[in-house]
Amino acid sequence: MGITQRKRYEAGASQPTLEVIRKLSQALRVSADELLFGKAQRGPEEDLCLQFEAISRLNDDEKEVVRSVLEGLLLTHEVRRG
After folding, report:
1. Which domain holds residue 21?
2. What is the pLDDT along the chain (82 residues), one digit of tens a residue?
3. 27 and 52: one domain?
4. Is the pTM of this model over 0.70?
5. What sign does the CA torsion over 14, 11, 27, 52 have?
6. What single string gives the DSSP state of each residue in the chain?
7. Contact call for residues 56 and 71 (beta carbons, < 8 A)
8. Domain count, the chain
9. What is the rounded CA–CA span in Å between residue 7 and residue 5?
10. Residues near 52 by Cβ (< 8 Å), separated by ≥ 6?
11. What backbone torsions phi and psi does residue 56 show, to the nearest 5 degrees?
């Protein structure tokens, strides 16, 4: 990517395509979410990161149970919010 194009992106004069975002995230070794939203804007809070890391090591059946439990909790939360 040329300097001129990068300056356009930074100035808001141009928006990168999805392909450009993908290439940037790979080159910079960060997620596309981090490029778009910043480091602290998306993702689990710090106290949940270790738990999600542990969940990633579960087998597929155990992960499905975790997904079901989380979905149930989130649905209950939404119903209570009204």
Report:
1. 3-37
2. 788 988 888 898 999 899 989 998 999 988 888 888 877 666 677 778 889 889 999 999 999 999 999 999 999 999 998 7
3. no
4. no
5. negative
6. --HHHHHHHHHTSS---HHHHHHHHHHHTS-HHHHHH-TTTSS--HHHHHHHHHHTTS-HHHHHHHHHHHHHHHHHHHHHH-
7. no
8. 2
9. 5
10. 44
11. -65, -20
Contact 5, 14 (CB under 8 A): yes
Within its chain, how far is the Cα of 53 from the centroid? 14
Q: Are residues 51 and 74 in the same domain?
A: yes
Residue identified by tokens 């597929």 is 60
Which residues have a Cβ under 8 Å from the Cβ of 20 and sit 6 or more positions away? 1
Between CA 45 and CA 5 the distance in angstroms is 34
